[in-house]
Specification:
Elements (H helix, E strand, L loop, with lengths): L2 H4 L4 H11 L1 H11 L3 H15 L6 H10 L3 H18 L3 H26 L21 H19 L4 H24 L5 H31 L1
Length: 222
């Protein structure tokens, strides 16, 4: 594949995109230094609006959806996709890229900032599931964006048809969105946690794609 002509994820564009996407996270992190202030009040209001739509029929559905962004689902997808890329398609570089991106972007980076910022989870609403640890940024939201967003990138790299790429992007986007909503619905995150998770996850994915692009371009020029 000619990287320069066929790849839409050019490194320079991805770097600038990553810098832009990280802005919401940075602003929210700054807000955390001031104990969230007005933002905390807005979080409560928006969160209560979402929680106000709880229904016995939706509760198990939202619980199931939230697991799509959890550690178990992420590990299963990571192992399955990595194994398929490495052993079946012989795309070893993409396999390594996906492992590192998910492990560092959806795992290590999220935990680092959780323990640096130490935001407590919502306490004024009933939590429908048990969830430990700190609240900001949302690990499920960040993880789903990196895991499923990374899958869309893989679809593009493997040269799938336009329809398949579009379907993959729509399905991935829907899962990512619903996982974020489910975290607020279940009472374990504030809306800003979800936004922060999306922002940091998207930035991490963009930077990772940029690094892969630079490596690919250097290898092609050798």
């Amino acid at each position: 594949m000619n990287w320069k002509k066929e790849n839409v994820f050019r490194p320079k564009i991805m770097v600038w995109l990553g810098l832009f996407l990280v802005i919401p996270f940075v602003l929210l992190a700054i807000a955390s230094l001031y104990e969230w202030g007005l933002l905390g009040w807005i979080d409560d209001e928006i969160g209560m609006e979402i929680v106000g739509n709880r229904h016995p029929f939706l509760n198990p559905i939202m619980t199931w959806i939230t697991h799509l962004g959890g550690v178990t689902a992420s590990v299963v997808i990571l192992m399955g996709i990595t194994g398929y890329l490495y052993f079946i398609l012989k795309e070893k570089a993409l396999a390594v890229w996906y492992v590192l991106t998910v492990a560092l972007g959806a795992g290590g980076l999220n935990q680092l900032f959780k323990y640096l910022l130490e935001r407590e989870r919502p306490t004024e609403i009933e939590q429908l599931i048990q969830q430990g640890g700190y609240s900001f940024p949302s690990g499920h939201s960040m993880g789903s964006l990196v895991v499923y967003g990374g899958l869309v990138f893989l679809f593009v790299q493997l040269g799938k048809g336009r329809v398949k790429k579009l379907v993959a992007a729509i399905v991935a986007g829907l899962i990512i969105f619903l996982v974020g909503i489910s975290r607020v619905y279940l009472g374990v995150h504030f809306p800003s946690d979800v936004i922060g998770g999306y922002s940091l996850g998207a930035a991490a994915l963009a930077f990772s794609i940029a690094l892969y692009g630079l490596w690919k371009a250097e290898r092609t020029n050798q």
